[in-house]
């Protein structure tokens, strides 16, 4: 399944054993390093060649106009686009006056390794220059999880032809990097063409700090670098800086037994409010702190951080080495996206590329945060605090739309709505329910009473108010939500979308519960008993359509009345080959919608309903979204189609290592990477958290001998091991016992007292077919 010609399969790393320029951009995304605050694409150290250069700071963006051929009330006026910040990765090398460039001379060997346990990107190169000199270059790059503002590069060069060699290493900070405005939207490209205005440069010994400001959004950033060079006789050093370039050079005559070795420390910071001296001094202090810590201590703290993470989050798979690698790769990048975001968004691409303009969508709350809730809950509360920090903007948007409460944006960086296509943007109000769902899941998994009584309550109150004003009771008392778009973007502006209604029902009901539990805090938000009663009434009477003729839940009130799509001979993805009005009028799903509803709100469906719904929607779902495969894996496993679930598991897990959507060059698909964990834990582990109770319904495909995963629940780590013979539940932390449900049995797990139970899978009946040409590849273990 892995299509990159040089990736090898191994359990704890992604290794590229040779360089292929035709897939360079894909490798840059795969080898990206981040901590949620800083993101460095895996560009070559010397800067060229590149597929897409990229250095990103979470939340750092430029604005651009969103012109319309025909204006309409409530259309967003401005878009936001992630900015390629000052690049500190570049270390150019001259070998006897010839530039080290792998496109010239002869590349003798080239290996890169993304080490998932160490959190490092290592590179080893052997190169013969056009004049015949041979060198070896070794670099190691990290973005620190422990020192949030810091990244570092260890650089070593030596001759390998037995002769001394004169080299010059030029370490750079480069702003307004050429080739970075890669966008299919000409408005975005124009906004990103040299978006940074120089404000100040500071040089002190081998330390340089550059300060810039974006032209339109007015955000200020600083980037700093400093260097520690190992003792070396005859070394000449210097530094200089201009508006968009800072350069440190090191010149030496080196022998095979005396390589040139130095460490480059980087630091980044930005602010929308602070002054030039404040931002500059923050970065100067961060780079000084990194230098004081030193390379060895930074590397050790990185390993310690990841040892702790893997100890509570690892997923082990016996029987498929490719999936083992892919699931750990997905977990690592999910962690990188959110670990130190600290009240910033988690974009759909993380900080690995400029795809989707760097925007955050519902992907975060529905796919990424469930994983982090059970593996790194501190990152979840930070992500939710970011949503809370944008609440005023969501309230303003609701007022503009003539609604109460808050209308959170479909796509954004700062919190403003940036979707110019309202049917799939503003109309997708389910984002409110997704945010509420993430709040509820976090509260149930952690018991965080402080967050519940403050920001959690305020988020739930404002999202509930939107539903109450958006929906209405009919003459019989049933509550309807009309004119909305659910997760399936091939059905827009529909009435009573089941997913939306069920997420709203949960939102309204839990908002009422928590407001009643915290009456003083609720009153401070203007909530009274009458409003709570209105929420409960709407939740109790929420209309959930059901088609008795077909014995399935329609995706929305009219979906099953539409004409069936004829899939034979169609070109995919459909949205690039057929008009939306055609898609909107047919029974076709871009991605699971009703099926996702019965995963996230499975407490509202019977097992028989789930099986019938899955069988009905599987032949209609074309998977034109990277969000599809993981949901279908979970649903297929739950109803008993375990081998089909295994096929979808492979597709979700290998989305980027296999470049299945042919756009990994633009950045990784964070939702699908997180979705590989969902496929393993919620799919084959059958884990659910309805009503605050952890439950498990194990399954295992024939190709896998064993699945073992760890989850955090109420600050306790539970390990679940599934074989074909049994499921074993173990607590890895001393403390209170944990009660969980295994299939239909309640069991209590105590430390040092594993619980073992057999398991069964229901007979699912015939395996459903997919639309012609959209069948998942049959999984063959590697």
From TrEMBL:
Residues 328-677 form the Glycoside hydrolase family 65 central catalytic domain. The active site is at 489 (proton donor). Transmembrane segments: none annotated. Keywords: Hydrolase. InterPro entries: 6-hairpin_glycosidase_sf, 6hp_glycosidase-like_sf, Gal_mutarotase_sf_dom, GH65_N, Glyco_hydro_65_C, Glyco_hydro_65_M, Glyco_hydro_65_N, Malt_Pase/Glycosyl_Hdrlase. Substrate binds at residues 362-363, 590-591. Residues 687-749 form the Glycoside hydrolase family 65 C-terminal domain. Residues 15-271 form the Glycoside hydrolase family 65 N-terminal domain. Belongs to the glycosyl hydrolase 65 family. Residues 757-782 are annotated as: Disordered. GO terms for biological process: carbohydrate metabolic process. This is Family 65 glycosyl hydrolase. GO terms for molecular function: carbohydrate binding; glycosyltransferase activity; hydrolase activity, hydrolyzing O-glycosyl compounds.
